[in-house]
């Protein structure tokens, strides 16, 4: 039962990495779109694409926190008492990002729009970075089972910084592919070219950082490195194949196919991390079984989580379908 709860938890992590990642990545392109005149059209596409769904993506973050807190309270306490700095900064960034995105639509003065727009865009980069450092701190075994680990070295270390940078780049890549497909769906060749070029550039950056990360993991996190080369190798290969396929098909591929390939590329690399770490939950310190709550709690949680998923997944699927078909008014 503890393994089933861990799978449910990590499924939520993967979904949030994909949907929230595309959300944050769109903010990355908002930040780097250029001045008010040059960046107006890319930012307008970002607004149109995000407005109907950006709040819904955080449902999965809440799901992950509740699952971790309830199913694995020992691990939850250890993570929160060790990595409270990046987690607190990420939470602050989520609040600032949401406020910036909401208020820049109603601001009238240009200077106010710039401030709120900058808050949205900068936070869109910082939040995935801090969440990536948290993942790196956990995966590299820097969260002790008893908690209260080093609040600085726990997330400011080579593996965590690598995780943060890769998280930002992966979000930017996913968003660029999604927005390329969205521009094609809207028959806007100029914006399609704009985002396609950035998809290629971001994919190249991901490849360079990933290659450099091999040496980083080998030196700083040998256990994780070994797991990625054994148990996690298949998901890593799947991620690379799907990512390259999306790039090859960027010019002529169907929008839905491009989006599906980007989703699988990101989902597979996150899944590879989970598979490589199994059966440990806190790097090399605590196994899933040792950190799990009592069996009655796990049974109740699984039943409630299953019922919630039956309601939430179809609802969110309908939301995305309506958004893709232009049936939602992004101004509300």
TrEMBL record:
<feature type="transmembrane region" description="Helical">
    <location>
        <begin position="231"/>
        <end position="250"/>
    </location>
</feature>
<dbReference type="GO" id="GO:0019646">
    <property type="term" value="P:aerobic electron transport chain"/>
</dbReference>
<keyword id="KW-1133">Transmembrane helix</keyword>
<keyword id="KW-0812">Transmembrane</keyword>
<protein>
    <submittedName>
        <fullName>Cytochrome D ubiquinol oxidase subunit II</fullName>
    </submittedName>
</protein>
<dbReference type="GO" id="GO:0005886">
    <property type="term" value="C:plasma membrane"/>
</dbReference>
<feature type="transmembrane region" description="Helical">
    <location>
        <begin position="298"/>
        <end position="322"/>
    </location>
</feature>
<dbReference type="Pfam" id="PF02322">
    <property type="entry name" value="Cyt_bd_oxida_II"/>
</dbReference>
<comment type="similarity">
    <text>Belongs to the cytochrome ubiquinol oxidase subunit 2 family.</text>
</comment>
<dbReference type="GO" id="GO:0070069">
    <property type="term" value="C:cytochrome complex"/>
</dbReference>
<keyword id="KW-0472">Membrane</keyword>
<feature type="transmembrane region" description="Helical">
    <location>
        <begin position="115"/>
        <end position="139"/>
    </location>
</feature>
<keyword id="KW-1003">Cell membrane</keyword>
<feature type="transmembrane region" description="Helical">
    <location>
        <begin position="85"/>
        <end position="103"/>
    </location>
</feature>
<feature type="transmembrane region" description="Helical">
    <location>
        <begin position="6"/>
        <end position="31"/>
    </location>
</feature>
<feature type="transmembrane region" description="Helical">
    <location>
        <begin position="159"/>
        <end position="179"/>
    </location>
</feature>
<feature type="transmembrane region" description="Helical">
    <location>
        <begin position="257"/>
        <end position="278"/>
    </location>
</feature>
<dbReference type="GO" id="GO:0016682">
    <property type="term" value="F:oxidoreductase activity, acting on diphenols and related substances as donors, oxygen as acceptor"/>
</dbReference>
<dbReference type="InterPro" id="IPR003317">
    <property type="entry name" value="Cyt-d_oxidase_su2"/>
</dbReference>
<feature type="transmembrane region" description="Helical">
    <location>
        <begin position="200"/>
        <end position="219"/>
    </location>
</feature>
<dbReference type="GO" id="GO:0009055">
    <property type="term" value="F:electron transfer activity"/>
</dbReference>
